[in-house]
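step=encode ok
step=design start
structure_in=
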């Protein structure tokens, strides 16, 4: 038994912030941001929250799949920017959408989170523990950003993407997933001190901090490697792949991965010009756009790959 995606949805905050808007608050400009990253604008949350975006994307995915609330038996939300430590975002989505027959929990694997959530659901379905699941990547990273740091504040956006997945005979063919905690310091956020009545030595709260070049090198090496691995392990020729749906971190990373795989960049759809880097939400938002534009046909083979803080990575080969 494997896992098949049967519906998609996405939700973006109403507020659009352009590179020119950012140039008014930090020393940057549209030319620098768009040439180094491919990003031109991003959506930033104002009245929306991580869980409200997650629920909106989830509702849309359920409508697309034609699945009612009583059918969902598992909700997994990937996020590293939840509204609260607890309850989890998944429990908030459950309440919001009335999915009272579902188990619900969050996973935290930063930009790889959506694939980690999908692989977790695969394990539940493969062992008979779930039949129909809602999988969501949702982020409001704007609250974790130091808005005086031009090196990071230009990169990220808020949003959520969701899929409904069903236990079926076709769908996910192969996946790989990995992590290297020894590289964790390349990309960090919010170091929280242990403060209790017996330990009062608090350090100041931290924001997203990144060694951009180390992350770049990691991504352009690890992503082609794990994509080749899923293809080899499933005896699939790379020419059979219609699209490579990658985490939307940076257009230069995606072009470099395409070059290393000797594939045309047209096979690597991008929306980061409009959405920026939405971490765990980027793959399902892009998948939803592709689905709604009719780019995905039954039996198409696609590869998805996520990479990010941890450091973590993953790749999934699936049949649509
Ligand atoms: N506007 C103008 N100038 C800037 C900006 C900015 N927003 N940010 C940095 N600069 C300046 C720097 O201060 C530096 O100036 P200096 O030469 O006078 O010291 C110069 O630009 C070059 O800085 P670098 O950091 O070396 O720039 P680089 O070419 O490496 O590009 C970038 C930075 C875009 C972050 C790149 O390293 C990158 O794409 N890294 C990948 C990381 C990534 O995508 N992270 C996303 C999160 S992680 C994830 O999703 C996996």
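sequence_out=
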């Amino acid at each position: 038994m494997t896992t098949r995606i049967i519906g998609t949805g996405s939700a973006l905050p109403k507020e659009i912030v352009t590179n020119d808007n950012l140039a008014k608050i930090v020393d940057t400009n549209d030319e620098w941001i768009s040439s180094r990253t491919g990003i031109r604008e991003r959506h930033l949350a104002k009245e929306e929250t991580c869980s409200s975006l997650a629920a909106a994307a989830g509702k849309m995915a359920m409508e697309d799949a034609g699945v009612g609330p009583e059918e969902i038996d598992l909700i997994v939300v990937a996020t590293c920017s939840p509204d609260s430590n607890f309850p989890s975002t998944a429990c908030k989505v459950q309440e919001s959408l009335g999915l009272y027959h579902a188990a619900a929990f969050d996973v935290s694997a930063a930009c790889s989170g959506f694939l980690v959530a999908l692989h977790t659901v695969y394990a539940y379905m493969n062992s008979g523990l779930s039949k129909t699941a809602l999988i969501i990547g949702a982020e409001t990273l704007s609250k974790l950003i130091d808005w005086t740091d031009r090196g990071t504040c230009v990169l990220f956006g808020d949003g959520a993407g969701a899929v409904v997945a069903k236990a079926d005979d076709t769908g996910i063919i192969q996946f790989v997933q990995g992590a290297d905690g020894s590289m964790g310091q390349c990309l960090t956020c919010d170091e929280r001190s242990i403060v209790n009545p017996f330990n009062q030595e608090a350090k100041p709260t931290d924001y997203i901090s990144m060694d951009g070049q180390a992350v770049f090198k990691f991504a352009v090496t690890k992503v082609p490697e794990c994509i080749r691995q899923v293809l080899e392990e499933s005896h699939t020729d790379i020419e059979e792949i219609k699209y490579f749906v990658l985490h939307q971190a940076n257009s230069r990373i995606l072009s470099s991965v395409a070059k290393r795989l000797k594939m045309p960049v047209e096979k690597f759809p991008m929306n980061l010009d409009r959405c920026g880097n939405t971490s765990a939400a980027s793959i399902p938002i892009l998948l939803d756009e592709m689905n709604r534009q009719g780019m995905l046909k039954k039996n198409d083979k696609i590869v998805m790959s996520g990479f990010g803080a941890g450091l973590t990575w993953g790749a999934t080969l699936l049949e649509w």
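step=design ok
step=annotate ok -> The longest strand covers residues 2-11.
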